[in-house]
Design a protein that fits this description.
Elements lengths: L4 H13 L10 E9 L2 E5 L2 E4 L5 E3 L2 E5 L4 E6 L4 E4 L3 E9 L9 E14 L2 H5 L4 E4 L3 E5 L3 E6 L3 E8 L1 E6 L16 E5 L4 E6 L6 E4 L45 E5 L12 H6 L6 E2 L3 E5 L11 E15 L2 E15 L4 E9 L4 E10 L4 E4 L7 E6 L5 E9 L5 E9 L1
Parallel strand pairs: 9-10
Antiparallel strand pairs: 1-4, 1-6, 2-3, 2-5, 5-8, 6-7, 7-9, 8-9, 9-12, 10-11, 11-14, 12-13, 13-16, 14-15, 16-17, 18-20, 19-20, 21-22, 21-28, 22-23, 23-24, 24-25, 25-26, 26-27, 27-28
Length: 412
Amino acid sequence: MTINRQLLAAALATAMLLPGTVVMAAPAAGDVMLAVGQAWVDDNGQKRPLERGTQLKAGQKIITGSGGHVHVKMKDGSLLAVRPNSVLDIEVFEYDAANPGAGKIRYALKNGVVRSVTGAIGEANKGAFRLNTPIAAIGIRGTDFVTFASDATTRASVKSGAIVVSAFSESCKVESFGACWDKTVDLAASTDSYVELNRKDNTPKLLKGNLPLPADSTVLPVSGDIASVLQENKASSLQKVTPLPDSGPGTEGVHWGRWQNDANGMNGLPVTALLADGKSIHIATSIFGLGLTKKVDRLPDRWKANFSLTGGAAYIQANGQYTAADLISGTLGIDLGSSSFTANAIVNDGTIAHHLQAAGTADWRGYLVADPTKSNTSFTGIVHANQNTVGSIFEKPIDDGRQLTGTMVWNR
């Protein structure tokens, strides 16, 4: 009997629309462990904000904007860290805990930076894993690696294990799995080498030096140790956090910590301790992570508000040493009618009063992101659900290689 495939496909599509038809949802592929800044999931064109605890599945895309970081623990124990201004497509994720060697993983990094740490599927069957970029295929050998991709360039480095980077060709198809063996470069774990492939010459090359990455992509590194809450500076012990009060000047619903476990001269606990205590981190720099007890879901249209600086912590960073500085005063204005904000503050390092000025975009999700062409300070903020409190993080280079950095709490 001859089967008309077009009629069969039409019949199946019609059946899915009939009352009582059960359509099986795709199984979960991974869980978001950390979502910071501008981060979304795109599901067949439907884009929604990503939050800690969100389950992801094959067919979805992780999208990050400025300051956006997403850390995901996949169901096979593998880890992903998607860094700012990136798009990662979870094309295929098939996993059976009873038979991990039969599983398959294929990611497509459309642009940006991702770090991937192998889990059960890659350990059991290295030929079942593939990371594609617009111009390259990357296979693994039980690996922790970082990849940068644009439409014209792919770069990758290895922290442990090894990778095989190949140009696409007749023998290296986009839809395949595992490593290719035509126009390839193998790279084992190295501190001073990386692979680069350019669309122009279509041949991967092994280059000396550290992997060149966008300036904002090195924040929030991922570790293979999930107990360290997906960051490299592992806390030797996760002590119970004494939370900041949820009411009162300067601290209403805002908490922050440092990514480094041991920052000489800096008070407070590491971010790992906050996360272990169930707190969320919503914005971050390379030094601080800051979160709210509850972030706003959606600000009212054309919402406007003015705030005063009421608390936080400031430091001068020089040669790995942190020295406390004083937050003196500041004002913050937000205008959703023009999707903008302005902030001004004075910080005293004991001898000099530093004037911080930031201006940039404000969106309906409550995120504030400074425009470097309008600011002398890197500034990111987040509005609390009470709409009366804003938490922010700032960094400002000063002189002789020093940097002013810290957190601010604003109230009205």
